[in-house]
Design goal:
Elements: E1 8-13, H1 17-26, E2 32-38, H2 42-52, E3 56-58, H3 61-65, E4 72-75, H4 82-91, E5 95-98, H5 106-116, E6 121-123, H6 132-142, E7 149-159, H7 175-178, H8 182-197, E8 204-212, H9 219-222, E9 231-238, E10 243-252, E11 257-264, E12 267-271, E13 278-287, E14 291-301, H10 306-321, H11 329-348, E15 352-353
Parallel strand pairs: 1-2, 1-4, 2-3, 4-5, 5-6, 7-10
Antiparallel strand pairs: 7-11, 8-9, 8-15, 9-10, 11-12, 12-13, 13-14
Length: about 350
């Protein structure tokens, strides 16, 4: 029997907005069967079960993990405690898809690695690499036309608009619930996107960074209990001498700017990770006798729906095809290590290096 002739029997833990997105992505896919959901809120689980026609509902995730008719689980729960859920699911023989951020700290991924076995573990930080321009960029990188990697750059800052009418969710800027603030909400995407397009060749060695929390007059945007970063900038040095310059901010008192760039010794790629339906990819290169020239090497429409569907579809097909997912445990560890180094540098005011014997799964 060919692998794609059987189905992945899937369960989703967490019936909030993101959990529903995964259920929507799985619906009507011929290779996926949704068999169970879990949420600590019984009413929420029952409502979602009715909406999507899911036969089994649980309020205890451990009970769900013990079900023999479940092959794989999606963990669409807050980051705090999610690593423990992943460990429990893997011990019960389930494949696991983990929502963003991948973890609150890299040590959590080490725990998951210890019990992974031959199961697929995938991460939703891969979302933006399913966009067409990102795939074109990855192919261009493989051609080697950029030469030696030198600078990988992200600057994505958003100004404050009108205050939200509703109080924002508590978890978005709480270290105890999410690991951090904007770096964990969006920086995890930036780093996965850039590291993935460059073929996961970058290995962080040390970092220097600074973060800033919410100013009191910005609490209507972040929530009064926010203790995570709303703005931060860092420099990550990688093996081989390449550096990542990274800035992410939200509700800042500055104009909006979003730019991502990969610069090598012979050329560069200029990208737009977040965009509307139209996008393009610009390649620059040095031409002897002429100088540096820039060319649009891809342009077209983007399928924004793939941002929600991509990780789940890739995860389930990786199970059936017995291959690695777009972002697996080893890749997630690299991006989480970069975040860890920057967070510790910001906390201590020092350059933080990967200690001897650490930095690899």
């Amino acid at each position: 029997m060919r692998s794609m002739e059987r189905k992945v029997r899937l369960a989703v833990v967490g019936c909030g907005l993101i959990g529903r997105k995964h259920l929507e992505a799985a619906r009507d896919k011929p290779w996926i069967e949704i068999v169970a959901i879990a949420d600590i809120n019984l009413a929420a689980a029952e409502a979602v079960s009715k909406e999507y026609g899911v036969p089994k509902q649980f309020t205890d995730s451990a009970e769900l993990f013990a079900q023999p008719d479940i092959d794989a689980v999606v963990l669409a729960t807050p980051a705090a405690g999610r690593a423990e859920l992943a460990v429990q699911a893997l011990r019960q023989g389930k494949h696991v898809l983990i929502e963003k951020p991948s973890a609150t700290r890299a040590a959590e991924l080490e725990r998951i690695r210890d019990v992974q076995g031959d199961r697929v573990v995938a991460f939703c930080t891969s979302r933006f690499r399913f966009l067409k321009h990102a795939q074109a960029a990855a192919e261009y990188m493989q051609s080697g036309q950029l030469g030696e990697l030198r600078v990988i750059r992200c600057r994505a800052v958003k100004p404050a608009g009108r205050p939200p009418e509703k109080e924002p969710p508590a978890w978005r800027y709480r270290i105890d619930m999410n690991g951090g603030g904007i770096w964990f909400n969006w920086g995890c995407y930036d780093l996965d996107y850039l590291f993935g397009i460059t073929g996961w060749k970058l290995q962080p060695v040390e970092a220097l960074a600074q973060t800033w929390g919410a100013d009191p007059d910005r609490f209507p945007y972040s929530g009064a209990g926010a203790d995570g970063e709303t703005h931060g900038a860092g420099l990550i040095r990688c093996e081989g001498g390449a550096v990542v310059t990274f800035e992410r901010g939200e509700y800042v008192a500055a104009p909006a700017e979003e730019s991502w760039q990969i610069v090598g010794s012979q050329g560069a790629l200029t990208l737009q990770m977040t965009t509307a339906n139209k996008n393009n990819l610009i390649a620059s290169k040095f031409v002897p006798g002429t100088g540096t020239v820039s060319t649009v090497i891809w342009e077209g429409d983007e399928d924004r729906g793939i941002l929600h569907d991509g990780p789940l579809l890739d995860f389930t097909k990786a199970i059936l095809e017995r291959r690695s997912p777009s972002t697996g445990l080893e890749q997630a560890y690299v991006t989480q290590l970069a975040l860890d180094l920057m967070c510790e540098s910001a906390r201590t005011g020092k350059i933080i290096s990967v200690s001897e014997g650490k930095g690899r799964l």
